[in-house]
Design goal:
DUF4010 domain-containing protein, globular, MgtC_SapB_SrpB_YhiD_N, mainly alpha
């Protein structure tokens, strides 16, 4: 029987995970800064810092279990090892401390298991083993990361872990339309999607062709893909069909992206949009495949195409935050002066620049009295406006040949959106009528 109250709770595992993750974060930065050092020549690398974080979290768990003596013992041993390894290079020429930290954690795991806290002991042991086994993968990752990407990740952490918790969670301004916390939370969400999209393009798309680059690049910005590919098509007419397929593929990724944002704010609205977005995505991917499939052998130089780089910096989320605030104010004013349908006009204008802003505004509105159908139509209008804007970029930058390949796909997606919403509403009415009878 356990000698202490059971601590194998979700909170305990979450705390250990956070400790490990924070150690890994510091280790990634230190590992990148010291990447020129030979493996084993760094005093502490990415795995060492990850394990140090895990050891710290584990020591705190021991304290919570009432095992202060063992926690102090592990802390003392860790301090001793730091001192020893600081002078060890003069004796052995080696600097790594990963094995020593792993030995301490293993020792403490044994203590935990001895007190029959088997779940925690097993979780820590498995986490440590995974970190140790990721040596080559982590070193390859560090070697491939650029300083600008490290800075981007750190800036994202600033806006999410430092700025967000400091903001008040209440409405301000006319009609109480601006909630700083909720507004910035959406900035964090959109920034996270864009940052993940950037790394997806970097690690998965190079050399894989225009179509995959378009799909992954759509996570960053389908508009950026449209502009970039259209410019490429100006000087490389033979690639116009393939580039058009890439633009269509990128545009289809807009739908799951919008659904993710909508679901985070209003699951009921996301459910309403699921059918129209699914139909539009199917139509868009089919149109892209129809263009790409007969010409797949013609794109001999596809691998040279790269998605536009994601220059994530602190100004980008701030700019989006300003745009989102303006759209929220405009939407509140339109609803106050014109009624709920006033949101349609705001969506048509805002969609030209960005779909996310009107998506957030409509989603928040649907949880505060705005009908689901009005919110859904507003988002569809924003998506339509954005698609027409991208078609305009293609026409101006890519010319008529590329536009001829693009417009049927865009038109098909727009029709599918509104047809899907109509079908969804008809089915809903029929089900409600059946339930009422």
């Amino acid at each position: 029987m356990s000698l202490t109250p059971p601590l194998a709770t979700v909170e305990t595992f979450l705390a250990l995970g956070v400790a490990l993750g924070l150690g890994l974060l510091v280790g990634l930065e230190r590992g990148w800064s010291l990447r020129a050092e030979p493996v084993g020549g760094r005093y502490a690398g990415v795995r060492s810092f990850a394990l140090i974080g895990l050891l710290g979290g584990f020591t705190a768990v021991l304290e919570a279990m009432g095992l202060r003596l063992y926690g102090l013992m592990s802390f003392a041993i860790f301090g001793l090892i730091l001192v020893v390894t600081a002078v060890r290079p003069s004796i052995t020429g080696a600097r790594g401390i990963t094995t020593f930290i792993a030995a301490i954690i293993t020792f403490v795991v044994g203590i935990c298991a001895g007190f029959q806290e088997f779940e925690i002991a097993a979780a820590v042991a498995v986490a440590m083993t995974v970190v140790l086994g990721m040596k080559d993968s982590l070193h390859r990752f560090i070697a491939g990361v650029e300083r600008s990407e490290i800075n981007a990740a750190l800036q994202f952490l600033i806006i999410s872990a430092i700025v967000l918790p400091m903001l008040p969670n209440q409405g301000y301004g006319p009609w109480q339309a601006l909630n700083p916390y909720q507004l910035w939370w959406m900035v964090v969400l959109i920034s996270a999607i864009s940052l993940l999209g950037h790394f997806a393009v970097k690690w998965m798309a190079p050399g894989k062709g225009i179509l995959l680059t378009g799909v992954l690049g759509g996570l960053v910005s389908s508009t950026a893909i449209a502009v970039s590919f259209s410019r490429m098509g100006t000087g490389r007419r033979e690639l116009a069909p393939m580039l058009a397929a890439g633009i269509l593929a990128a545009s289809t990724i807009m739908f799951p992206r919008v659904l993710i944002v909508t679901f985070a704010l209003s699951p009921a609205l996301a459910e309403t949009l699921l059918l129209p977005f699914a139909l539009a995505m199917i139509v868009g991917l089919f149109a892209a495949w129809r263009i790409w499939s007969p010409r797949r052998d013609e794109g001999a130089h596809e691998g040279e195409i790269e998605a536009p780089e994601s220059s994530f910096d602190i100004a980008t989320p701030i700019q989006f935050g300003v745009l989102l605030a303006l759209v929220m104010l405009a939407a509140a004013a339109a609803r106050a002066w014109v009624g709920d349908q006033g949101l349609y006009y705001v969506a048509a204008v805002a969609g030209i620049v960005d779909v996310d802003a009107i998506t957030v505004t409509a989603s928040r509105g649907s949880t505060a009295g705005l009908s689901l159908i009005v919110a859904s139509v507003s988002i569809l209008i924003g998506v339509t406006s954005n698609s027409l804007a991208k078609a305009g970029f293609v026409a101006v930058l890519g010319g008529g040949p590329m536009l001829r390949f693009i417009w049927p796909g865009f038109l098909g997606m727009i029709v599918a959106l509104f047809a899907g919403l109509g079908i969804e509403q008809i089915v809903k009415v029929a089900l409600d009528a059946g339930a009422g009878s």
